[in-house]
C-alpha cells in the first residue's frame, strides 16, 4: 500500500517508521520539516497524500485535525481512507468523517493507547470508529503499528471509547493515590495495602499494573522517579475531552469532573504536567491543601 | 475451641453456623434473642463469653462495639481473644484493642468482605489487625468462615485496609457508571465499552467482575434487578468511615469525599439504600440533575 503520514512527532515518527520497515511505501509531512530517513519527505500535504491508499494523521488537537484534513481530502484519490490516530474531541472527529465521506473518501478515527513506548515497540492498541469495510482495509496497518485494534462502532466511537476509558482511569488513579496516602497516615504499610487491594474489590489497572507507590507492585513509572509513561498533561487533555463530550451530550460526570479539576491543579498550579500521571500520589503525601 | 459469638444478624448468623458445624462449641448472644439452632443460646453477654477461648463480635457500629466489648472483656478468661469482625471506625477499633490488652486479653480487628453470600458459603475475606500470635490462634476459625485472611499490621490495620479498599471501590464504581452513561449518550454500545475498558487501562473489579450494566460482562447484581450483593447503604457506611478516618488523620481525599457525597445523595435523597451499590448507574442514565 501507498501511505501518506501527516504529523511525525513523538508518536507519529515511530509509527511511520514501523510502517516503512514493512513492505509499505510511506510518504511523510510534518510542519517542523523533520522526517525520519525511512520515510519519503514531502514539503506539502498535497504531495504527501497524492495517490495514497491510506492517509494517516497524528495531530495534537481537533482544530489542527480539521485544518489538515480539509487540505488532505482535496488531494486524496477516490475510495482512499483517511485514518486519524489523533486523540481529539468526538465532534471534530465526526465532522472530519462527514466531510471525508461526502468526498468519496473513507474515514476512521483510531486513537491509541500505549504511549511513545508502545508506538516504538509496535504494541499500540487502536480504538476505532468507522465502517467495517474501511476497518478491514486498515487492519494490516494496525497490526504493524500495534497489537490490538477494536472496531467500536460508527465514526467517533474510537474517540468515545478512549475518553470513557481514560475518564475511568484518571479517577481510579487519583482514588488509588488518595488511599495510599490515607493508609500511610493510618500506619497501614503500602505493601500490605497493595496485597489486600490488588486481590480484592478495589483492584484496577492503576493499582495492579501501574502502582503509583514506588517499590510496590510490578515495575512502573513510580519506580523511575515518575518519568512518563503517560504524562499528567496528556491525562488532563483526555479528561478535558471527556468533559467537553459530557457537556455536549448532557451527561452528568461528577467524579470525572472532580478528576479533571484535580489534574488541572496538578498540571497548571503545581507545574507537574511533565511527570507521569501516577505522580499524583506526591500531592497526597503532603498535608491536605485544598477541599 | 470454645467460642462465644455476639451479634447474630445477617452476617453473624451464617458465620456462627459455619463454626458450629465444625468441631467447635459455639455459644451465641444477640440483642434480638434470635439464635440459630446449631448455636447454644445465652441470655447475657456474661454467659456467652464465660470460659470462651475466642469471643467473636459482629456488630453494626463502633459505639455498639465499645459497649459490648466493655461488657464482654469483664467476663473473658485470661489470654482469650476478642475477635471483632464488624466494620467500624479505626479509632473505636484501636480503643477496644487497648482496653482488651490492658486486661490480658488478645484483640484482633478483622472486618470482612464478601457480604451475606460469602458468609453463608464460608468464602469471606478477613482483613486483620493485631498481633501475629493472636492471628495464628484465630487462623483456623478464619479458614472455616472464609477462604482468605491477611494480617495487615497492628490493631486497627484490618479496618484501615477495608476502608482504603472500599474508598477506591466506591469511587471506581461511580466513575464506571458515569462512563457507561456517557457512552450511551455518545452512541457507543455498552458491549463495546466493556470489551475495550475491561482489557485496557480502565479495567477494575467494578468493570470486570461486577459490571453495573445489565447483560454486560459476568453475572452480577445488575443482572438481577440490582438486588444486593453489596447494598448502597453499606457502601455509604464504609465511605463515611473512610472520611472519618481521613479527617482524624489529616488526609486529603477529594475523590473519596465526592464519592461519599454521591452515595449519600443516592441513599438519602433518592431512597435507594437497599439497592445494590452498582445501581448508581441508574442515577446517571437520567439527565443530569446536580453539579
Mind explaining what this structure looks like?
Two copies of one chain form a homodimer. Chain A has 291 residues and is of the alpha/beta class. The first copy, chain A, contains twelve helices and nine strands. Chain A has helices at 12-20, 45-49, 62-75, 90-102, 115-121, 132-145, 157-185, 190-197, 205-208, 232-249, 254-269, 280-285; strands at 2-6, 25-29, 40-41, 54-57, 81-84, 106-109, 112-113, 124-130, 146-153. In chain A, strands 1, 2, 3, 4, 5, 6, 7, 8 and 9 form a nine-stranded mixed sheet that branches. Chain A starts with a strand and ends in a 6-residue tail after the last helix. The model of chain A has no long low-confidence stretch (mean pLDDT 96). Chains A and B meet through strand 9, helix 7, helix 8, helix 9 and helix 10 of A and strand 9, helix 7, helix 8, helix 9 and helix 10 of B.
Keywords:
homodimer, 291 residues, alpha/beta, nine-stranded mixed beta sheet, 49% helix, 14% strand
Oligomer description: homodimer
SS-based structural class of chain A? alpha/beta
Order of helices and strands of chain A: EHEEHEHEHEEHEHEHHHHHH
Biggest sheet features of chain A: 9 strands, mixed
Question: What's the β-strand tally of chain A?
Answer: 9
Q: Name the average pLDDT of chain A.
A: 96
Q: Work out the helix count of chain A.
A: 12
Shape, per Cα inertia axes of chain A: elongated
Alpha carbon gyration radius of chain A: 20 Å
Strand content of chain A: 5-15%
Terminal residue distance of chain A? 55 Å
**Most extensive chain contact?**
A-B, 75 and 75 residues
- Could you name the ranges of chain A where pLDDT drops below 50 across 5 or more consecutive residues? none
Helix fraction of chain A?
40-55%
Amino acid at each position: 500500500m501507498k501511505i501518506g503520514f501527516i504529523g511525525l512527532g513523538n508518536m507519529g515518527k515511530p509509527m511511520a517508521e514501523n510502517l516503512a520497515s514493512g513492505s509499505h511505501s510511506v510518504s511523510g509531512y510534518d510542519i517542523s520539516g523533520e522526517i525520519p530517513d525511512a520515510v519519503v519527505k514531502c514539503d506539502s500535504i498535497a504531495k504527501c497524500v497524492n495517490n495514497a491508499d491510506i492517509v494517516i494523521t497524528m495531530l495534537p488537537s481537533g482544530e489542527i485535525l480539521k485544518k489538515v484534513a480539509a487540505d488532505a481530502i482535496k488531494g486524496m484519490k477516490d475510495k482512499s481512507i483517511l485514518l486519524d490516530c489523533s486523540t481529539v474531541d468526538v465532534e471534530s472527529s465526526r465532522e472530519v468523517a462527514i466531510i471525508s465521506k461526502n468526498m468519496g473518501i473513507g474515514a476512521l478515527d483510531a486513537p491509541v493507547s500505549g504511549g511513545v513506548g508502545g508506538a516504538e515497540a509496535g504494541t499500540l492498541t487502536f480504538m476505532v470508529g468507522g465502517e467495517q469495510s474501511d476497518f478491514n482495509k486498515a487492519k494490516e496497518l494496525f497490526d504493524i503499528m500495534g497489537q490490538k485494534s477494536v472496531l467500536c462502532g460508527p465514526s467517533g466511537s474510537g474517540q468515545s471509547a478512549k475518553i470513557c476509558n481514560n475518564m475511568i482511569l484518571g479517577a481510579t488513579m487519583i482514588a488509588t493515590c488518595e488511599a495510599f496516602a490515607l493508609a500511610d497516615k493510618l500506619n497501614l504499610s503500602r505493601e500490605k495495602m497493595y496485597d489486600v487491594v490488588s486481590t480484592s474489590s478495589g483492584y484496577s489497572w492503576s493499582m495492579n499494573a501501574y502502582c503509583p507507590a514506588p517499590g510496590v507492585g510490578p515495575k512502573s513509572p513510580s519506580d523511575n522517579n515518575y518519568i512518563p509513561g503517560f504524562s499528567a498533561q496528556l491525562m488532563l487533555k483526555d479528561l478535558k475531552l471527556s468533559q467537553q463530550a459530557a457537556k455536549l451530550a448532557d451527561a452528568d460526570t461528577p467524579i470525572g469532573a472532580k478528576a479533571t479539576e484535580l489534574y488541572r491543579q496538578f498540571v497548571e498550579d503545581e507545574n507537574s504536567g511533565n511527570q507521569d500521571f501516577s505522580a499524583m500520589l506526591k500531592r497526597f503525601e503532603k498535608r491536605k491543601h485544598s477541599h
